Amino acid sequence: MKLYQLALITVISHFGIVSFANSSCIGDDTGFCELGLSVFQPWCWGYEANCSFDEQLFNRPLCEGSPKPWVNTMEEKIEKFWRQADFGYIQDFLSTISDFCVPRKSHQGHLKCSTNMRYCHSRNLVLDFKEYNFDTRDRFLEDIAERVVIGGDCIVESDKIDMNGQQGGALQSWHRELRKFKTMSMGHNCDVTIERPVVFMKLDAGVNMYHHFCDFVNLYASQHLNRSFSRDVELIRWDTGTLYYQDLFKSVWKVFTSHAIRSLSEFSGKIVCFKEAMFSLPPRMYYGLFYNMPLVPQCYGSGLMKAFSRHTLSRLNIKHRPLDKQVQVTLVPRNTKFRNILNQEELISALNTVGAINLTVIEYNPRHMSFIQQLDQTYNSDVFITMHGAGLTHLLFLPDWGSVIELYNCDDAACYRDLAAIRGVKYFTWEESEALFPQDEGHHPSLGAHKKFTNYSFKLEAFLKLVLKAVDYIIQHKPTVSHHIHTEL
Ligand SMILES: *[C@@H]1O[C@H](CO)[C@@H](O)[C@H](O)[C@H]1NC(C)=O
Ligand SMILES: *[C@@H]1O[C@H](CO)[C@@H](O)[C@H](O)[C@H]1NC(C)=O
Ligand SMILES: *[C@@H]1O[C@H](CO)[C@@H](O)[C@H](O)[C@H]1NC(C)=O
Ligand SMILES: *[C@@H]1O[C@H](CO)[C@@H](O)[C@H](O)[C@H]1NC(C)=O
């Protein structure tokens, strides 16, 4: 099976825009239904052994530009991108999963992990918190393995565990938690037994959309490693302390579970037995997916990110409204201390005179707009405009033909450009530095002058030119839109 045996540009356009989110997915655990794919045809993600790439792969990425110096041929370039940011990433993980604790005869217990214990799966797992009371502010205590007994009903491969501790950072692997894994029988001494499958997660900042979506994307990727998207699972936030975890995106958990999120500290002082548990991919791995992600340039459209986007929108029941001839442009002002658009009124009045555009200016402020409403607005936008900041993570939820304008990237060029590339939406940013006016030199709390810590005004002509480029892209790519729209003023 070689990706480069594929025709380059066969875009499979089988997604019914209006109908893809429907309640009939309840009971379907394959993950395809949410994507609007017929369950009667055997689709594949790309990592399965029996996936026929030319007929059944539901999405393929595209590359442009020279393959050199990264690889030699265009085919290799596509494959590289596929392994960095698409389902090839999942395939590479799957190929390294092996036993770290071997089942005993007639017992079902096991611990299987990928290399460096970044993902693990266990049956008949025991966590003994008898001697541990969570009395710390540290979320991911370094020596937790000394204080909590963790084991399972299987025979431990201690040498192998020791050899897989190369990436032991808290948000990089599960090695620090599982390095003292021991053989324990599961039975009469459990204070609590959790029957439902459990997912342990170590989460990044819940107040920042960029970081928190690294959590969600890696959870979705982990579900692919176990090949199950059932919501009848218990999500347990792995936290060795009791510090409050602020989560501004709580409504997203519904995508993954129909039960309330739990936290480890509820088990203080108890021996807890788990029938089945997954340790999901942490959000800040080396060569991780989306945080710290290396990416060959000029490749676009990861199937994994497209699937994540659709899966999320579908399970949150967010629908696309009937397509409109006008280009739906959403401009999101930050209204925070920095990176405001000083001449916003001037720019907005000008956009309002462009007939092809239906402009919505709206602040994504959680006090006035729920996150679900924000996603609904984003998904129903063709062009999404905002300044550099975590809110740009919304680009993951633009429709496939969408485009995003990071009005000014404050010299942080790669972050949202790369995110847009893997999601497969068109990315634009401010290019004319002489047509951009910072309010002052910026005030970083410790570093002094800094481009991210001031406000900007933008020259009107250059702004319009940029927006109209994005609008033209939409007119060429939005399905069923008449091609007779004029973008002149
Ligand atoms: C691959 O095999 C599985 C199990 O036999 C089957 O359910 C699935 O439909 C097959 N997939 C494809 C793409 O043929
Ligand atoms: C893992 O997959 C099995 C099906 O093979 C499923 O029953 C279970 O719920 C999944 N576990 C998790 C934690 O999602
Ligand atoms: C512009 O879009 C909004 C939805 O965002 C819609 O309610 C409104 O009717 C549209 N306006 C026009 C003139 O089409
Ligand atoms: C940027 O704008 C905000 C909101 O108007 C204001 O509070 C802040 O002081 C401005 N920053 C600078 C550097 O002037």
Automatic annotation (TrEMBL):
Ranges of residues in domain Glycosyltransferase 61 catalytic: 310-404
Keyword Endoplasmic reticulum: yes
Catalytic activity: L-seryl-[protein] + UDP-N-acetyl-alpha-D-glucosamine = 3-O-(N-acetyl-beta-D-glucosaminyl)-L-seryl-[protein] + UDP + H(+); L-threonyl-[protein] + UDP-N-acetyl-alpha-D-glucosamine = 3-O-(N-acetyl-beta-D-glucosaminyl)-L-threonyl-[protein] + UDP + H(+)
Signal peptide: 1-23
A Gene Ontology cellular-component term: endoplasmic reticulum lumen
MF-aspect GO terms: protein O-acetylglucosaminyltransferase activity
EC top class named in words: transferase
EC numbers: 2.4.1.255
Pfam name, any one: Glyco_transf_61
Source domain of life: Eukaryota
Residue ranges the record marks as coiled coil: none
Keyword Glycoprotein set for record: yes
Keyword entries, A-Z: Endoplasmic reticulum, Glycoprotein, Glycosyltransferase, Signal, Transferase
InterPro entries per the UniProt record, alphabetical: Glyco_transf_61_cat, Glycosyltransferase_61
Name the record gives this protein: EGF domain-specific O-linked N-acetylglucosamine transferase
UniProt lineage: Eukaryota, Metazoa, Porifera, Hexactinellida, Hexasterophora
